[in-house]
Amino acid sequence: MIITTTDSIEGRRVTQYLGMVAGEAILGVNVFRDMFSSIRDIVGGRAGGYQSALRDAREAAFADLTAAAQALGADAVIGVDVDYEVLGKENGMLMVSVNGTAVRLG
Known about the structure:
Blueprint: E1 2-3, E2 14-28, H1 31-43, H2 48-71, E3 76-87, E4 93-105
Parallel strand pairs: 1-3
Antiparallel strand pairs: 2-4, 3-4
């Protein structure tokens, strides 16, 4: 499955547009990860717990996008957009959403 942010794929022709597909992942942020990230912010460095959670959420969202495109018989998803949001009353949830257009290629 080809997944791209562009609206075309070099050397390939879109023969059929199958519709919009999306994938979402919402993850809760662990209180211990928050505590250690706060300490890390004070002393400097990267917040590895948050980076890992963000990577996991992005991978899950792309897996859902790919599954939705495969269910339509797509060869590719073009025009992919990736969005990140913090949800919850006290920003306790991380949401990653991806969407694009499922297509068949010639």
